[in-house]
Amino acid sequence: MQELTIQDFVAMWERALVRVTERTDEFSKLDAVIGDGDHGTAIVQALTSLVEAARKGTELKTMLNDMGFNVMMQTSGSTSTLIGGFLLGMGDHAEGTGLNAGQVKQMFKGGLEGVRKQTQARKGDKTMMDALIPAVEAILSCESEDIRRMLSEAAKAAKAGAEATVEMKANFGRARNYGEKSVGHADSGASSWACMFQAFAEQTEK
Ligand SMILES: [Mg+2]
Q: Of the four listed, 101, 153, 196, 201, which is most buried by Cβ atoms within 10 Å?
């Protein structure tokens, strides 16, 4: 796959919405271990509003901006702030109606930078960053020009990153108060972001 078109990109998010929706309860239960148990519904709401904006898109930069603002305006809470930051950051580094491998790398790199504007969480803190950082790193270090391959490596890295959170102790935000209680369960955000990257890869394999 040498080019990622705007249609491919919209389809990736549509698939993410489908896959995350299938696992809503699982993500909420994981969140309940160290939080308020709303992550499943929060991420589904966020994806629903960004997909709605994506379907009206005709150009990547404008579309990503609309997706980001839509998700931040329509839903509140950290889930939508982080995913909104990701979309706005991507929008700063993407334009037109199709991207080559190098441009896809820049877009995802921009997405991570956008999330970093919204959170101080680092790798190892048991947050969604434990899936997102390895996923973006895998994209950036992929030597292939095949975008399908890039996204498949990102999905593997995100999955491994989410699985690694099982052994971690929550070290960020309110979840920190739960300390040891958080060990033994994966982080809900890392798990849902891994699910999204899995969906992105799955869609481009079609
Ligand atoms: Mg929550």
A: 196
